[in-house]
Amino acid sequence: MPKHSLPVVEKHRPRRTKADAAASCASRLKVLADDTRLAVVQQLLHGPKHVAEINEELNIDQSLLSHHLRVLREAKIVIARRDGKAVLYSLAPDVEVARFGKAINLGCCLLSFE
After folding, report:
1. CA–CA distance, 85 with 2 (Å, rounded to integer)
2. Under 8 Å between Cβ of 44 and 80
């Protein structure tokens, strides 16, 4: 009995327009327009850190830091993972560290901390 192959159906992704890309970039930059969020990202340039380590440097109220970390997570700039009882934060995989750890490439632009 011969096997009949079924046609392969590929999902069609709508093309991303320049306007869509610009809007996405602008929304990420708006998230980073806050001093505290920018400071968090700068701390994560050299690798993952626990919340306590981030807060040691920033010295802000825990609930305020949690708010900023949530905003960064929602913008897909950072990711969080459980490390025992603590939470470890790092830059998201699509946020590339550039210029020897002194900048990030968001895919739409390069943000330098120099």
Report:
1. 57
2. no
Residue 107 is classified by DSSP as: S
Considering the entire predicted model, what is its pTM?
0.79
Residue in 108, 112, 111, 113 with CA at minimum distance from that of residue 25: 108
Domains observed in the chain: 36-112 (1.10.10.10)
Q: Is the torsion defined by CA of 94, 98, 102, 103 positive or negative?
A: negative
Burial label, 62 (beta-carbon count in 10 A; 0-12, 13-18, 19+): exposed
Phi/psi-derived region of residue 83, left when phi > 0, alpha when psi is between -120 and 50, beta in every other case? beta
39-91 confidence digits (pLDDT tens): 999 999 999 999 999 999 999 999 999 999 999 999 999 999 998 999 999 99
Q: Where are the alpha helices (DSSP H) in the chain?
A: 18-31, 35-44, 51-58, 62-74
Distance CA 84, CA 87 (A): 8
